[in-house]
Amino acid sequence: MALSDVTTERLQLSRWDVALHTPALTRLNACPVAVRYLNDGVPYTAPESAAQSRRFAAHWEQHGFGLWAVRVRATGEVIGFTGLSHPLWFPRVAHEVEVGWRLHPSAWGNGYATEAGRAAVAAARTSLGLSRLIAVIDPENVASIAVAKRLGFGRESVGAHPQRPGTIELYALHLAATP
Ligand SMILES: CC(C)(COP(=O)(O)OP(=O)(O)OC[C@H]1O[C@@H](n2cnc3c(N)ncnc32)[C@H](O)[C@@H]1OP(=O)(O)O)[C@@H](O)C(=O)NCCC(=O)NCCS
To answer: Which residue ranges does the record assign to the N-acetyltransferase domain (predicted)?
Structure first.
């Protein structure tokens, strides 16, 4: 089954489109505070963000689901992404489906990540028929852990980060057990 676009109370969640969404991703990825727990804390260059944007679109092509661009309905602004994808950067769990979120700092503190994440969890259950979702999070990324916990995820394990020194935490949500 495939994932559709979704409208929530305040957000429009749309299939990733390179032409439409690369500029917002480039602005987001250029913010040091937004990448503090990603890419060794180094902001992405514009070509790196463009390549990442193409990978987001390719994931949709290949799997029928992926990361949504998140647009604030009231302003029309694209503030980042949320959605479902295979964490290909983490081979041990790459067969699983991860819910992810990354928003521009100017949009933090509004509950947008939780609102979009809740839609992703619902779609994982109803549209994709998944029984389990994961979230892979840096142990110091308190804001991301808080989103995962608000959505009902529990910490399942801690292990070595696949690409750098330090650890990474695996959160999981068993969808069959949630209403
Ligand atoms: C992870 C990330 C998306 C979390 O953003 P966030 O704004 O803290 O999370 P939410 O959108 O769910 O907002 C929750 C906050 O909004 C507040 N809020 C305000 N209005 C709200 C409303 N109407 N509804 C719900 N919450 C609201 C909540 O009280 C909460 O504030 P608090 O953090 O002071 O408790 C953000 O920090 C981010 O993009 N980080 C960089 C990328 C990243 O690290 N991604 C995760 C990789 S694993």
So the answer is: 28-177
Domain residue limits at 106: 6-177
Per residue in 30-80, pLDDT tens?
A: 999 999 999 999 999 999 999 999 999 999 999 999 999 999 999 999 999
Pocket perturbation via mutation, ligand 1, pick of 102, 118, 121, 150 by most ligand atoms within 8 A of CB: 102
Q: Supply 72's token pair.
A: 């604030």
Question: Using a 6 Å cutoff on CB, does residue 172 contact ligand 1?
Answer: no
Smallest Cα–Cα separation from 115: which of 143, 150, 155, 79? 150
Q: Has residue 18 been placed in a domain?
A: yes
